Write a sequence for this structure.
């Protein structure tokens, strides 16, 4: 029971730390009346959106849960409960993280004004850590509660053990479903608002970003919170849970060598592996808390160093603790030695770092790719956009090779379980990663508030610096999110194949069933992307019309005398996001079911792999194309190739606007698409196992 | 022997018709001195490029042929000879087609001036048919010659029969290698020149397209010929050969039910299937000749109707003849009935038509997608580009479903051979398809010459009309090219798996070896695309600099008094294309070899499938994104959303420029990438068969 207890204790500690951090943040002064007013608008906008989004998600969740109860010969009520629980956990973490983040931003601005860099960084990272530690604390606590509640560890009957363990798969599905809507809804919201605000404000009216006269600016700021904080948190929460769930299922298969029939001593081996996983998760949480503390202490001198330092502290500490845990608790399993788990963990971490570094290389304006992209903007927007697309495409090469090698190393070390553990390795310090990632939008918003409340330039200087530090860490974090999604999805897929007991000889790529699945699956991320692009486009379109209308109709708005109507803009963004997320969401949810019934479980396996492969690739491409174009614009704004207002700058603004929905809406949503489809397939196993597929019966 | 004789006779007839058409074209008047001068510049530019390109390709071809001779324990000299022969055949068809096409364009203009629509269409389609019928006539003749020369049909020893048949695989590889360079080199040439010409001419200097003051216009016109005529011809020539070769190899496997051991009566069955394939090819050639004649006769009234009518005549006639052939010559084979081949053919043709229709739906401005895209250009270039990308992504859905269903139907009808036959079904009227496709650029160039020689508006009216008709048929033709490439590649892959004798249980998608291959393969088209985008960007960049320099330095150039220096622009395009094609070409050629040696034949199979899947998808996406953005611009130019010069128009021009390299350089080259990699793998079989792969030995 030691792993369960460690998991329980560490997650409770995380939640206590979260409460302390919340108290710290809320105890700070929020600033002048103007600042308070703006902050309130952002809070209200964010919580309005969240409320509406949650209502829609709840409906979908409840419908699915009821459907599961109706099909209870396949799923049993435990699956429905796990599913609901997963959705609740994800929703709770998002709600807590977001409400604190939207309260931390004005306080960060005020601290920047009153006590400079250190105080501001302190609040921003505290706000971020509320999200980060909520994610891991609540997720792990939820999992441990399910393991206790279903009495999984007490079970000695082999069949029942596996059935109970499998019903927890739906926990990941609940979290994943929530994440999909949070990411795609939030992503549409934030980019529709952002593009709308920029297209009329910056491009047409020639007023700066975050100018209070622009009525879409509040919606843009709300978007930063709902997209980048709530969305990212839900995304990584999902990956975190999934990597653990997949590893647990795969532990069974690797110990029983694929037969799914466990002898008593083998059952003990499996339980031991699960205990080790939970213990390492606990180590990751404790290390993340220490990492956050490191940032707070080290903040004095150099924020960039503090944030990166904290991340490294958490990662290294986790690896040391993991080694100790495996040394103490580990034992040979299946055909593999005691240290197999450790090398799998390491391969995941190393490839994650490589992917993060490549993101940095292709998206930071310290390196050649972005500088060359900035140069090509001199020839106009078309060449700039082509250059940005091509930068992203090229950036896929090394990450894919890194993933392939991690898969090879981890499966050589611990068989198919190794792949699950590698994915868990990337995610074990999720607490720290999400803290740093959520810090970014808080700093960004703090800057916006400084601008809108006309604070002195040196305050804006502090917040700008904090923001630019956030951009660098965000690029690395994005790489991690994609890499971990890739692994989590592959781990889930392996768990699906094992659970559905698909025979190796049926899964050949030369089989028409598999090939059909690969083709359909490969196409899905493209269809899904196009729907999200359309949704962003539609919202941006509506936003542009509205801002143009206000500039035209509200008297004195451009002189700063008329009051811009932010509420209508927030409303447009909310409606656009809700409407836009439903259809792609339905595709993600229904595809595994439809393919499973029409074509059977083998074609579904092919579909999943097809989707995972094209999804990973375009996910990476979009993140880096978008990031590269964003930073090429910033590089020009720093005075290169003619600086602000030059031809090159105008071209780069177009490129940046094209890249925005790629990196912040479509790319991240694809991460979730591939995970969600895989986890739904895993949950559907009891229902579709053994089906031959209606289509194949026709021929 | 009847199939061989029919193949020989029909291909000789095709070549005779080509000679007659050449005489017809060359007998026409070329026009005024100005027209002659411009036509001469285009001819010289095209032949200069072709000469240089052929030199580089020859070097690569000879090096590979020598390498094959050095590894003659694996390949034997017959493979090297087949390979050289394939390259020569492709080169010869390209050379003949292009030199006549560049001679037909001024003559088309003059005919438009002297005898109006009918005369002009007559010359343009004759010029196109020279390319179209050369492709099929020379390709089939080449194949028949090899079958005779190697005495394949005389062979009664089973082993030797299969070895001889396999050595002909290299014939397809030679054609494929040639096509890769022709397509990518031509594509870089044409789009670099086009973008360069437009960016300075239309966007900066505000002079119309094809304005003779623009020194890059000649290069642009040369590009239409080398990219759209020679490139497309080589592409379809390759698919045509490959679909036949793959079907022949698969015939062996389907008759022997995968054992590769033939009894004497089974050998007879295989020979009979090959005879049927050759007979149907002969039927396709005869039908294509009749289709071309139909166009010439029907041209009087309505050119659109004439071209489409000719295409339908050829297709329907071929199907009727195929049914007769199968009725007379067919027999049950393997587990399948006599009519299995026919249904496979039909499934290929039907899905090809569906793909063509979807291309039309998404790229013609008669339908909603392009009109909505034009509308979104009103919000500026960024939203326009996003809309164009998303249009292409959405357009992938139906074609993939169509391909999946064709694969299901054809393999249900004739096993794995059915897939080869379906691909052959799409390509059997290649003669007609290439004729119509090559007609387009001739009409386009004719318009350019009319503009540059300041001919009266009504002449330009005729050529514009001919051109716009060409655009519609070109969209359908592009759909066909992609669809057929997809099938041909899948057919080759099946032939590879069968030839390499890979056991079904080793090919499971759950195997790390396969999964690694799928990931690497899926990434390759992205890497390849990015290199081509870079090459186009670089050439366009150089072109822009040069045109700007000439506008600045040549006195009186803008007043039409100074002579623009076209030769330097042609030179820049030629160098850019040659330099740009080498590295991506090397990747395509070397990947199968490197993966085969490092990872072994199983991972190579995974790599091929990964590349085929992502290649098909982004191939379709690029073709339709590019086509959609092009026609959205044209739709606006027709006076919608503000017409020429409006904000929407400027945005659409940016979108069109982004789409140009997608549809004309990268998309088509990816078609060839996937075919080339597959055919190289097939040829490499004797060398890599049974290797375990260096990497897997490490773990």
């Amino acid at each position: 029971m030691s792993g369960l207890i460690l998991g329980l204790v560490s997650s409770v500690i995380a939640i206590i730390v979260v409460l302390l951090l919340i108290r710290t943040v809320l105890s700070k002064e929020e600033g002048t009346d103007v600042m308070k007013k703006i902050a309130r608008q952002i809070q209200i906008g964010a919580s309005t959106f969240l409320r509406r989004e949650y209502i829609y998600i709840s409906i979908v969740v409840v419908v699915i849960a009821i459907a599961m109860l109706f099909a209870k010969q396949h799923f049993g009520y435990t699956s429905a409960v796990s599913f609901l629980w997963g959705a609740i956990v994800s929703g709770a973490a998002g709600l807590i993280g977001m409400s604190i983040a939207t309260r931390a931003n004005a306080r960060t601005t005020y601290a920047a004004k009153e006590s400079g860099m250190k105080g501001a960084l302190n609040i921003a990272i505290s706000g971020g850590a509320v999200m980060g530690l909520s994610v891991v604390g609540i997720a792990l606590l939820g999992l441990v509660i399910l393991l206790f509640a279903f009495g999984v560890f007490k079970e000695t009957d082999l069949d029942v053990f596996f059935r109970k363990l499998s019903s927890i798969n739906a926990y990941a599905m609940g979290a994943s479903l929530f994440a999909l809507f949070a990411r795609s809804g939030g992503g549409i919201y934030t980019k529709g608002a952002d593009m709308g605000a920029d297209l009329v404000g910056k491009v047409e009216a020639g007023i700066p970003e975050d100018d209070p006269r622009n009525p879409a600016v509040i919606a843009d700021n709300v978007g930063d919170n709902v997209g980048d904080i709530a969305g990212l948190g839900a995304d990584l929460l999902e990956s975190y849970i999934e990597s653990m769930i997949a590893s647990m299922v795969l532990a069974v298969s690797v110990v029983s060598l694929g037969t799914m029939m466990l002898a008593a001593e083998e059952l003990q081996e499996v339980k031991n592996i699960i205990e080790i996983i939970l213990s390492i998760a606990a180590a990751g949480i404790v290390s993340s808390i220490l990492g956050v503390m490191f940032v707070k202490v080290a903040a004095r001198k150099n924020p960039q160093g503090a944030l990166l330092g904290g991340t490294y502290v958490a990662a290294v500490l986790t690896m040391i603790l993991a080694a100790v845990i495996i040394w103490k608790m580990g034992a040979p399993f299946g055909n593999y030695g005691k240290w197999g788990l450790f090398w799998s963990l390491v391969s995941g971490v190393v490839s994650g770092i490589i992917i993060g570094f490549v993101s940095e290389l292709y998206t930071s304006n310290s390196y050649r790719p972005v500088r060359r992209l900035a140069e090509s903007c001199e020839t106009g927007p078309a060449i700039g956009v082509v250059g940005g697309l091509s930068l992203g495409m090229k950036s896929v090469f090394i990450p894919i090779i890194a993933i392939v090698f991690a898969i090879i190393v981890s499966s050589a070390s611990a068989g198919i379980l190794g792949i699950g553990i590698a994915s868990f390795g990337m995610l074990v310090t999720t607490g720290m990663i999400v803290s740093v990632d959520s810090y970014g939008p808080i700093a960004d918003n703090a800057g916006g508030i400084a601008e809108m409340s006309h604070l002195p330039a040196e305050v804006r200087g502090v917040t700008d610096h904090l923001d630019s530090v956030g951009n660098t860490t965000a690029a690395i974090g994005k790489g991690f999110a994609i890499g971990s999604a890739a692994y989590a999805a592959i781990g889930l897929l392996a768990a699906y194949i094992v659970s559905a007991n698909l025979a190796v000889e049926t899964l050949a790529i030369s089989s028409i069933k598999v090939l059909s699945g690969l083709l359909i699956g490969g196409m899905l991320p493209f269809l899904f992307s196009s729907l999200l692009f359309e949704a962003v486009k539609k919202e941006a379109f509506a936003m542009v019309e509205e801002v143009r209308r206000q500039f035209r109709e509200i008297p004195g708005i451009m002189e700063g005398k008329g009051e811009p109507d932010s509420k209508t803009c927030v409303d447009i963004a909310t409606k656009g996001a809700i409407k836009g997320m439903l259809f792609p969401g339905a595709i993600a949810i229904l595809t595994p079911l439809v393919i499973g019934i029409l074509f059977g479980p083998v074609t579904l396996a092919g579909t999943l792999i097809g989707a995972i492969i094209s999804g990973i690739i375009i996910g990476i491409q979009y993140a880096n194309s978008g990031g590269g174009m964003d930073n090429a614009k910033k590089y020009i704004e720093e005075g290169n190739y003619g600086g602000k207002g030059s031809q090159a700058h105008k071209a780069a603004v177009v490129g940046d606007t094209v890249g925005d929905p790629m990196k912040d809406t479509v790319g991240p949503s694809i991460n979730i698409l591939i995970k969600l489809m895989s986890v739904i397939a895993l949950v559907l196993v009891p229902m579709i196992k053994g089906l031959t597929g209606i289509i194949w019966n026709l021929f």
